[in-house]
Amino acid sequence: MSTKQDNEYIDAALAMAMGEAIEPYELSQQQRDSMKSRIMQRIQEPPPAGTSTLRYTEGEWFDLTPQIEKKILYFDQQTRRETSLWRLQPGAEFQSHAHSGVEECTVLEGDVTFGSHLLRKGDFHMANSGTEHPPAFSRLGALLLISAPEADAIGPAG
Prior knowledge:
With 158 residues, the protein is of the alpha+beta class. The protein has helices at 4-7, 12-21, 29-44, and strands at 61-65, 68-76, 81-88, 93-94, 97-98, 103-114, 117-120, 124-127, 132-133, 136-137, 142-149. It is built from three helices and eleven strands. The strands form two sheets. Strands 1, 2, 3, 4, 6, 7, 8, 10 and 11 form a nine-stranded antiparallel sheet that branches. The chain has a two-stranded antiparallel sheet with strand order 5-9.
């Protein structure tokens, strides 16, 4: 059964053949400069009213442990919740920790295991207030998107 979504993608071999069939076109320096200027202008436009954007190159990564870095994307002063990225190196571990509020974790890359519960790329995990995680480990390394109460900050395993 074919869906509209299936038809939105071109077969990789067909895409390669189409790309090879296109004759290269050399842009003049003026055309290149104009194109770059338009792209940079779009990138630098402010976000829509009532929203904010943190670019990939913005913000600061800091070490939680020698194998775990964290970058705070957003902190809500009223609820004291933060949304952050966590970058775990292969073999990274962190200690068991309690949750004073709901913690949400999405695995963007790699893997992380809580006790014997393995999560992989694309998996979402939620821990309720009052629960406790067993120690965690990442075999491959991981990039996690975490939303949790500020009070639930953790440190190294052990």
